[in-house]
Amino acid sequence: MPPINEQRSLGTDFMAQGYARIGEPLNLCTEGRRWLSEVCLAECDSAHSEHALVLGATPWLGRFLGERHQRVTLVDRSEAMLRMARAELVSNAASAQIDFVEAAWLELPALVGAADTVVGDNSMSFLPFPSAWTQLCDLLAQRMTRNGRLVTRICSPPTRHCSEPVAQIVAEFLARESINFTELRARLLFADWSPDTYEIDTEQVLRSFENNQTLFEPLLRRFPLTPDNDLLTIEKYRGAGARYTAPPLGEALEVFRTRFKVMSVHFGPYAMSDYFPLVVAVRK
Q1: Using N-to-C axis directions, what is the helix angle for 166-174 and 213-222, rounded to 10°?
Q2: Are residues 176 and 150 part of one domain?
């Protein structure tokens, strides 16, 4: 087995190819960005705003944090994601120093200085639970200032979650007046969630689509795929090998509490938000 910081490296660039097109349910756009920004403003200590660390190359987060910090560091192991972020941030430069680091998040100690704010959007979900989550919490705590804030959105099925047959999911979306295929993709992902490992196989979405084409035909006739609403170009999952980890919220919070004081948990104003809680914690 490869080292943890090399696991699940496949499939990162396919996200970069479609990331800018994802609608509100998963990628934070419009109301979602406004909501997360308001949480950061309310929960983070503005008196300590020297260095912000972003787990992932999310351009809007770099720009938002750059308006409030002297330095912002974006860390991502995907060169494609970093290239996209650099192109957007250079043309919309904030007054802050913006650094781009191509590396796994578990390599943080050798790469970045102390941060008073750390923000991640689903970044934990790409790491095995609980071992790598615990390791990353340890590393972040080592590289954060005292009372530094961690703000991270995670995947976590709500207590009422249960696996859903594909036919049931398709029937629900077919009854709607309009749909966002990214939400459908998320529902198909969580339909295959494992209660034993808390893992989701991203290629399961592709298999679900291919194995149930007759079920999807009436849905696609009513709601044709478009470049801006297309299941995140579902073909990109083929061979990606990417897996998400989505532990129950209670177990996830216990890992954070090993090195942080959990201050609050927030749920956003968009579809599927109850599956993607935002955790705010303070370094002990």
Answers
A1: 10
A2: no
For 121, the domain range is 7-157+246-283
Structure tokens at 6: 């090399």
Same domain for 72 and 138, yes or no, is yes
Residue at token pair 């090993």: 258
Contact 169, 184 (CB under 8 A): yes
Residue pLDDT, tens place only, 104-125: 888 887 767 789 999 998 888 8
Full DSSP string of 126-162: GS-TTHHHHHHHHHHHHTEEEEEEEEEE-----TT--
What value, to the nearest 5°, has the Cα angle with vertex 241 and ends 240 and 245?
Answer: 120
First to last CA, the chain: 33
Residue type for position 160: R
For residue 109 the two structure tokens come to: 């100690």
- Nearest CA to 212 out of 247, 251, 173, 248 is that of 173
Asked if residue 104 is part of any domain, the answer here is: yes
Q: How many domains does the chain have?
A: 2
CA distance 101 to 24: 27
CA distance 59 to 72: 11
User: Is residue 242 predicted with pLDDT exceeding 80?
Assistant: no
Are residues 17 and 153 located together in one domain of the fold?
A: yes
Q: Number of helices (H) and strands (E), helices first, in the chain?
A: 10, 9
